[in-house]
Amino acid sequence: MTGNGDRCLVQGQFFDDPHNSNTSCRLLLVRLKHDFFNTIFGNQIYASALFGAAKPATNAYLRCLDRLGVSASEALFVDDLESNVAGAISAGLHGHVFTGAGALSAELQRLNLL
To answer: What are phi and psi of 86, to 5 degrees?
Structure first.
């Protein structure tokens, strides 16, 4: 699940806060981001709530990996929150704190993923 209290993307369905007049603009931005990632990852986008856990809890990552059929050592988790990346690393994944496209590109090259 992504959101900040006024928008929420859950398995492709958008919900908003009727008390926030800016929600429709934010929903459009979330929708554009979702479409971009959907193009790359297809139907392999999961909300941690689907697994009964929330980041940075270890189970949030491990249950998702189980669904994907991937071992933790084969996975890279990218997030802009250090606490979420730390949770992924604790679960055995590779982790990268997103600070910009250049740094992510360098990390992907370092891991031979790009």
So the answer is: -60, -40
CA proximity to 50, closest of 67, 71, 33:
67
Rounded CA-CA distance 70/106 in Å is 23
Pick the closest to residue 23 from 8, 42, 36, 35 (CA basis).
8
Q: What is the pLDDT of residues 37-55, one digit of tens each?
A: 677 777 777 778 788 888 8
The residue assigned the tokens 């929150």 is 81
Give the pTM: 0.66
Q: Looking at the DSSP assignment, which residues form a beta bridge with residue 105? A: none
Q: What is the DSSP letter of 56?
A: T
DSSP secondary-structure letter at 69?
T
